[in-house]
Design brief:
The protein is an alpha/beta fold and 284 residues long. It contains eight helices and eight strands, in the order H-H-H-H-H-E-H-E-H-H-E-E-E-E-E-E. The two termini are 41 Å apart.
Length: 284
């Protein structure tokens, strides 16, 4: 019976996350079908456990019977009550967290707490498994070098032919990755995009970052992605102010990173409403 309750709990959790819209804060929305599949599978398994429980409850003479009255059952090696208790507790823990703990949208307080840095090369840190997701979305960790370069160059052809780059929620992470990978191809182009303002303590008031929080596959590889901007004279924004800007891409030296990074010389900017979903997702 406990197995049935846990499995039906997973079914309800997946349904709750999708109906409430909270699922978008855990995984890439393009993988929503996996959550639907897991919900259906959990429901099927729950029904199987319910049928098994009913059958075993009526066959008390069976060697592997489920004795509901005494609370004993055969658990493939988990014969002691405390072992079964620990197993069920671990299985139920995601349900408790999913239902009881609220999800909180990321904002600049996360950036201030964790800081951000330009992605370090694997060689520079001496650890081939290090994955850093700040400023520049990096999907190279999911492909071999040849396939990655091929995909990036193919995507680049969609943007280099035009003088203006319009960044949408759908292509946000792709465009940002291309700009950081091929900055010389974008210098001089006009860019338009939306994001939230972040005033770094290391910047003067005119230079602020405009970011979006993005998810590549799931929340484990999420990060804060965007560009440094030089705002027009007299324009200033507080942290978490959402803006829509248009400007020209150029390259500039950023002292904290000790390197050249892409920047935007903003010509037009306006404050906009915070979007319903603050996250952007990588399309493949």
């Amino acid at each position: 019976m406990i197995r049935f309750l846990i499995l039906i709990g997973y079914t309800m959790l997946m349904m709750f996350l999708q109906v409430s819209g909270r699922l978008d804060q855990y995984i890439n929305v393009h993988y929503r079908y996996l959550a639907i599949l897991s919900m259906a599978l959990s429901f099927v398994l729950a029904m199987v456990q319910l049928i098994i429980w009913n059958k075993e409850d009526s066959k008390k003479t069976s060697e592997h019977q489920h004795t509901h009255h005494h609370g004993e059952e055969h658990d493939h090696g988990l014969n002691k009550p405390y072992q079964r208790g620990i197993a069920y507790l671990l299985l139920a823990l995601p349900l408790v967290i999913g239902f009881m703990f609220p999800t909180v949208s990321l904002d600049t307080s996360i950036v201030e707490a964790k800081g951000f840095n330009f992605p370090l090369s694997k060689e520079s840190v001496g650890d081939p498994d290090v994955q850093t997701q700040y400023l520049k979305p990096d999907t190279s960790i999911y492909f071999d070098k040849t396939d990655y370069d091929k995909q990036m160059k193919q995507a680049l052809t969609r943007y280099i032919k035009d003088d203006k780059v319009t960044v949408t929620e759908e292509n946000y992470l792709e465009v940002m990755e291309l700009i950081y990978n091929y900055p010389s191809e974008f210098i001089g182009k006009t860019i338009t995009y939306k994001g939230f303002a972040f005033n770094s303590s290391q910047n003067d008031q005119a230079n602020i970052f405009v970011f979006r929080f993005g998810i590549i596959h799931c929340v484990a590889d999420s990060g804060v992605f965007g560009l440094m901007t030089h705002m027009p004279e007299g324009q200033s924004f507080k942290n978490n102010d959402w803006v829509e800007l248009t400007g020209t891409i150029h390259s500039g030296y950023y002292a904290p990173f000790k390197r050249e990074i892409p920047m935007v010389d903003v010509t037009k900017v306006k404050k906009v409403e915070e979007p319903k979903n603050q996250y952007v997702y990588r399309s493949f």
